[in-house]
Amino acid sequence: MKSYKSMTKDELLSLKKELEAAYVDAKGKGLSLNMARGKPSKAQLDMTMDILDVYNSKVTPVTESGVDTRNYGEMEGILEARQLMADVMGAPVENTIVFGNASLPIMYDNISRSMVFGVCGSTPWCKLDKVKFLCPAPGYDRHFKITETFGIEMITVPVTAEGPDMKMVKELVESDPAIKGIWCVPKYGNPTGCTYSDDTVRAFASLKPAADDFRIYWDNAYAVHDLYDEGDELLDILSEAKKAGNEDIVFEYCSTSKISLAGAGIAAMAASEANINWVKKSMTVQTIGYDKINQYRHVLYFKDINGIKAKMKEHAKHLRPKFEAVLDCFEKELGGLEIASWTKPRGGYFISFDAMEGTAKNIVAKCKEAGVTLTGAGATYPYGKDPKDSNIRIAPSFPTPEEMAQAAEIFVLCVKLATVEKMLEA
Amino acid sequence: MKSYKSMTKDELLSLKKELEAAYVDAKGKGLSLNMARGKPSKAQLDMTMDILDVYNSKVTPVTESGVDTRNYGEMEGILEARQLMADVMGAPVENTIVFGNASLPIMYDNISRSMVFGVCGSTPWCKLDKVKFLCPAPGYDRHFKITETFGIEMITVPVTAEGPDMKMVKELVESDPAIKGIWCVPKYGNPTGCTYSDDTVRAFASLKPAADDFRIYWDNAYAVHDLYDEGDELLDILSEAKKAGNEDIVFEYCSTSKISLAGAGIAAMAASEANINWVKKSMTVQTIGYDKINQYRHVLYFKDINGIKAKMKEHAKHLRPKFEAVLDCFEKELGGLEIASWTKPRGGYFISFDAMEGTAKNIVAKCKEAGVTLTGAGATYPYGKDPKDSNIRIAPSFPTPEEMAQAAEIFVLCVKLATVEKMLEA
Do domains A4-45+309-425 and A63-303 have the same CATH topology? Predict the structure, then answer.
């Protein structure tokens, strides 16, 4: 296909007419498709519907370790569920706590208790003039929303296929004691789909922060979410940090939201003994214990990490064609045009799309008008502001494959049209 | 029986010998009984075990209102669960949010967001020099632990059978803008078992606090927890507050922890529109939604408030003999001795016992030595300090009726012995 850059103004004008006509047609179809959030599809939820059968009234409600899963207590979660989640993260069971149905509230709570109580004995952040976080971007909008809500200043760090720019991270973290944390989705990142290289993980593990209470928020949300038999390998940060004499530097999180049922999974955190004790200190006041029935249900259903791996193969089989439909469409329709680039993830829930600078908002608006909802342009950057107005997060999981193909067609059409409009502006 | 007060020193000395001998015998039995926490018994949990069967893989996972209970979203909880919990509290469904498995974390979160963000636009409490809470006592230790943890100064307010001393509450709340809240368990209170009178509720509803951000923390934990067919009636504070032009003054909480399964219930909050919007504002950042599978499970199981009422009759049938065993033993063994008083609740989970001043710690220690664990003496007061060292919380729910009878025997023996020891000290 002919690169847009090589086109004359007349060629662009005639292309614009053509695209506009196609766009009018597309709007006429009256579609209503959603590629906005990383929501599992109905088919994926159906896949795990039988988890509701394993813990019924005929099952002994007491675990092997002697806990009645129906009663109060066992704040850290039942041992069997802690083992399951520890294995998802590759963390030691004694350093793993299992919470409620999602990992986002665990992260929110960690920030919240840092604000009010301080981290492991440090000054409460609410008593400080300035607290800053590093935000590798494009990144996860809900992470950024948490730090924004708590009035924490966010500093954007660029991301490559290897992970965040570690030279910049190191310089900032090691010089500025106001920097208290960094948000990371280290495997199949949201939205890039990329996995941090071993060098990146080791660079994180060996940081020497200016602030004692600096922590890496390691959201390992897609730890086992491969799309292909051969998945990316992520180095285990907990053991790397320990090796580097730096074991308190990281909080790791994961959940089964995209393994079992999105709204009713179980979530966990792993960290050093000192960090876990700090969390437990205020947890003791906050809760008598999370839902152990659902924890045990997950144990009965998956049994162990192999049960989870088997389930992830089912998810992969379902998700792969959707990702491929999108990527094929991008390649076919946009390849060689030199107007956009995109990631080709081997796992996770997202594709990160970089359009021509200054067109992302227009693309998202055009898609919406044609019935295709995308994550808001800018959402992948701190404060919702993409300085280049270029990045768009694509979430292929929720629509059916047919809907996905339709949505991708509309999307590439809008990309082309917005790009031509932009080029003619100049 | 002869009042201890009327005894001569010699009589007391001889009684002491007798009691000491009985105590040695009691210790010899090697008992291990727990009356410390308001935990449902195994039999009570068995009663609701079939809740695990109603939501299975054959059930349509989408609610009548069109929500797929398995997926993300629906932050306020599914409509059907909101209706169920609204009916437990007697609150409007549009003012009710359903959360996770327990109400304690909802209260903790409300305090936490008041600290960091302020209440409905007021100054964040962490920016104030002093924040105070009123603590009707004897009261619920876990309430007091929350305010203590956040560094909030706690002021003890005496409690009668009608509720807190409202003259004192009114004077303090209406004069001191540092007072931001009061903890209440208005029905079958923890530990008194008493229910606030209509006058008390109306006095609360018509308070004119010096602080705009003062709130009543109305923990309606035992809203439907009658022990007898005819239960106590609690006036609805939300509508009374509204009538008084004071609708923002109260946060109401409840849960099914002692209706369905203690560790895996659902919990709710009701409040004015302004208060609910304030909660939702930070909830949107904190969570994508609570476990709707468990919410729907409760809806399928109970159907409506009548289903809950029927279940509460089963609980009452089971709990009543335990309460009566304790109360009968107290009456039989301590009646007329003029050394103690206790409440005779018609619902809830506790009996409040007032021993002779300066003996509670000794009684609890003696019981422990004889194998009967009680809530720590002082726990029912702010900072765990009962100024009179007199109040002990009795929780009859967890042991079997036989164990309960044994435990009560030990308890009254320790009360007698500690009292005689105290009298001989003087």
Answer: no
Beta strands, E only, B234-320: 250-255, 267-271
Contact B264 A149 (CB under 8 A): no
Answer whether A52 touches B (CB < 8 Å): yes
A72 contacts B37? CB cut-off 8 A: yes
In the 8-state DSSP scheme, what is residue B226?
Answer: B
Kindly report the nearest CA distance between residue A123 and chain B, in angstroms: 13
Amino acid letter for position A328: D
**Which two structure tokens, joined as six digits, stand for A20?**
């506009």
Q: What are the CA-CA distances from residue A48 to residues A2, A259, A290, A406, B110 (Å)?
A: 46, 9, 22, 27, 34
Q: How far is A74 from chain B (nearest CA, A)?
A: 9
d(CA B298, CA A229): 40
Contact across the interface for B294 and A116, Cβ inside 8 Å = no
Q: How many CB pairs under 8 A join A and B?
A: 167
Spatial CA neighbour of B285 closest among A342, A145, A3: A145
| Chain B (236-295) residues lying within 8 Å, Cβ to Cβ, of chain A | 257, 261-264, 282, 285-294
Q: What residue in A sits closest to B107 (Cα-Cα)?
A: A286
Q: Do B72 and A39 touch (CB under 8 A)?
A: yes
State the DSSP string of A135-197.
EEES--HHHHHHHHHTT-EEEEEEEETTEE-HHHHHHHHHH-TTEEEEEE--SS-TTT-----
Q: Residues 74-133, chain A: which have Cβ within 8 Å of B?
A: 74, 100-102, 104-105, 108-109, 112, 115-116, 124, 126-127
Tens-level pLDDT at each residue, chain B (426 residues): 789 999 999 999 999 999 999 999 999 999 999 888 889 999 999 999 999 999 999 999 999 989 999 999 999 999 999 999 999 999 999 999 999 999 999 999 999 999 999 999 999 999 999 999 999 999 999 999 999 999 999 999 999 999 999 999 999 999 999 999 999 999 999 999 999 999 999 999 999 999 999 999 999 999 999 999 999 999 999 999 999 999 999 999 999 999 999 999 999 999 999 999 999 999 999 999 999 999 999 999 999 999 999 999 999 999 999 999 999 999 999 999 999 999 999 999 999 999 999 999 999 999 999 999 999 999 999 999 999 999 999 999 999 888 998 999 999 999 999 999 999 997
Nearest to B204 by CA among B215, B195, B194: B215
Residue contact B142–A53, C-beta within 8 A: no
- Residues written for chain A: 426
Asked if B116 and A100 come within 8 Å (Cβ–Cβ), the reply is no
Cβ distance B195 to B228 under 8 Å?
Answer: no
Please identify among residues 337-376 of chain B the ones whose CB lies closer than 8 Å to any CB of chain A: none
The CATH fold assigned to A4-45+309-425 is: Aspartate Aminotransferase, domain 1 (3.90.1150)
A231 within 8 A of A265, measured Cβ to Cβ: no
CATH node for B61-303: 3.40.640.10
Q: Where are the domains of chain B?
A: 4-45+309-425, 61-303
Q: Does pTM top 0.90 for this prediction? A: yes
CATH 3.40.640.10 is the classification of domain A63-303? yes
Chain B contact present for A390, CB below 8 A: no
CB atoms under 10 Å from CB of B344, counted, come to 12
CA A269-B119-A278 angle, 5° bins: 25
Q: Which of B105, B112, B124 sits opposite A287 (nearest CB)?
A: B105
- Paired tokens of A98: 């299992």
Judged by a CB distance cut-off of 8 A, whether residue B227 touches chain A is: no
Do A283 and A75 contact (CB within 8 A), yes or no? yes
Residue B137's nearest CA partner among B110, B115, B165 is B165
Q: For tokens 């009254």, what's the residue?
A: B412
The answer to whether residues B210 and B172 touch, using CB atoms and an 8 Å cutoff, is no
Q: What is residue B255's three-state secondary structure?
A: strand
